[in-house]
Design goal:
It is built from four helices and ten strands, in the order αααββββββββββα. With 249 residues, it is an alpha+beta fold. The protein has a five-stranded mixed β-sheet with strand order 3-2-1-5-8, with no helix packed on it. β1 and β2 form a beta hairpin. The longest helix has 32 residues.
Amino acid sequence: MLKLPQTSTDRRHFVIVGVLTLVTTVVLGFFMLAILPIKAQKSVQAEPIAWLFQVHIWLIAFLFSLVVVFMLYSLVVFRRRKNDDSEGEHFEGNTALEIIWTVVPLVLVVIFSFIGIQTLNGATSGGDEVQVKATGFQWSWKFDYPNGVTSAEMVLPVGKPALISLESQDVIHSFWVAEWGPKQDLVPGMTTTLHITPDTEGEFKLRCAELCGLSHWSMLATVRVVPEAEYTAWMDQKLAEQNVQTASR
């Protein structure tokens, strides 16, 4: 049976492995966060998503370090020495350890499932929302507002919930503003939705996050988040422009 540390030598090995695991976790965690930077959160929905992402990064770093450090340490320290033909100690398992590495992952999965459900509910809650229909097609975007305004850019008032209805005219696309956090697919033949509350003014880039053909890389659109007064003025201007175009036909 696999034994837990009993002698001072055994305990020393476990302490060394523990310290190496901790150091490797810290180095690997910061390295992954450096090469996978989290965009500044610019929506209410982005904050819990970014937090979950960071927690997963650190958990992945710890589990990877625990397995790899333990394996490499065992390979180096407990390797067969030259001219050593003795039999290794036989063991079949350890009930306590088997219970631990079964129960702990189960508890973690349940906890993250609960947090994920809460985050999803927060990201999809409705209310008094600005409504926009975003249509994706190879390889561009179009935005329609309920009052008949159509635009090549999406403009939203800051701090106000928005319901974005998503439709595709051809293949599967994916609506993604990195600073907002959530992504949502556009599926031909059906309407999907995305609830978002932008909480920071600025100009952002909408990208298609689903490989959709030859010019997928160029499927971009401008998204502007502005004060409500500026949003109202923009909407009035677009309506006036469209009325002029309609009258001139």
